[in-house]
What we know:
Elements: H1 2-29, H2 35-50
Helix pairs in contact: 1-2
Amino acid sequence: MLTPLFSVILNMSITASVVILFVLPARRLLKHAPKVFSYALWGVVLFRLLCPFSLSAQFSLLGLFQAPAGETGQM
Length: 75
């Protein structure tokens, strides 16, 4: 029971980290823009960290990195 929950939380954290990596340079580019744009960018990160669901798309940057298949076994 704990393993699926941990897996979901880990996935949410990793995707939020990827979003943060895009927000930081975007903030540099929007340095002279109104603050509302900066708040909106961080709102996307907050939404990803708090909401336990995700939207699927045809193309995903995270799909470029294939995770190795885990072993299944019994204890």
